[in-house]
Amino acid sequence: NAIPTSDTLDSNSDIPIAETVNAHVASTNDSSPLSGSGGNGDAVPTTSSANDTIMVEITAPANLHEGYKFDAFFNGVSFPVIVPAGGCRKGQILIVPFNPEASNGTPNAWKDGILACTRYGLCHPSFLCAWCFPLILLGQVMTRLKMDWTGHVSRSPDEWKKTFRTLMLIGIFKFLVFDNVYEYHPLHTTLLSLYGLYLIYLLTRVRKYIRDRDGIPNDHHFCGKYEDCCMAYFLPCCTVSQLARQTANYDIEIGHFMTQDGLAPPPDLNRYGNNDVDNDESMII
């Protein structure tokens, strides 16, 4: 029996946690309601099909662009969801097939190499910000992961929504003050050293968190269990650029320099004519 469970979106989705997932089995051999618990109620069969296809209802957790891809979980198994043409509104029901084998991602490896900084061009935020303002780009990555400015995952939006602004102010202050002062002063050296240590600390925490989340093992040929710290120390710009590419799908999403998460803002709801969502309205993919 398929049991509706809590739907936790993968952190790669950069959007809030969805409310519930309700499973529906499309089968000609079963027309009785499925038993279940949790969520918003029991799942029931919907359409008929020769193949026993499990259909999953997902309440859209945010306003999303068409083509946006994120991972959802059903019965502890991750599967990909692609937002259909026209995008979707927060609260809209998406009915998608439960097909874990359709995922094109590689769960146990990075999307690309540490030196693939120019994958999306020299003018892309994932390269320019990483080279010029690594702390600002890291703040956008941490916002996608819902981390506060200390590198800890926060359940409070009031905390992680301040991360980008906090790290941007630190990065701008460092650029205006430290990068334009060439005269030696002990205080200048001390503060610049603290900034470097803070950047290395955050990069190490965020990189380890992403590796644990995506099941990426340590590279035993490079620093072993200290790989995260070594990458943050020796290749900080390349590391933050890789983290940005790992936590966003730039093949679909447009990178932005000054948004909180470094991605495009939500779609304009005015094109739908009514921002209020009817719970009975659904969109089948």
In words, what does this structure look like?
By secondary structure, the protein is α+β, with helices and mostly antiparallel strands. 31% of the residues lie in helices and 13% in strands. It has seven helices and seven strands. The strands form two sheets. Strands 1-2-3-6-7 form a five-stranded mixed β-sheet, with no helix packed on it. Strands 4-5 form a two-stranded antiparallel ribbon. Strand 4 and strand 5 (77-82) form a beta hairpin. Helix 2 runs antiparallel to helix 4 (163-178), helix 2 (134-144) packs parallel to helix 7 and helix 5 packs across helix 6 (227-234). The longest helix has 29 residues, at 186-214. The radius of gyration is 22 Å and the shape is globular.
Ordered list of secondary-structure elements with their pairings:
Blueprint: E1 5-6, E2 20-26, E3 53-59, E4 69-74, E5 77-82, E6 93-97, H1 125-132, H2 134-144, H3 157-160, H4 163-178, H5 186-214, H6 227-234, H7 236-246, E7 282-284
Parallel strand pairs: 6-7
Antiparallel strand pairs: 1-2, 2-3, 3-6, 4-5
Helix pairs in contact: 1-2, 1-7, 2-4, 2-5, 2-7, 5-6, 5-7, 6-7
State the gist of this model.
The chain contains seven helices and seven strands.
Characteristic terms for this protein:
285 residues; alpha+beta; two-stranded antiparallel sheet; disordered N terminus
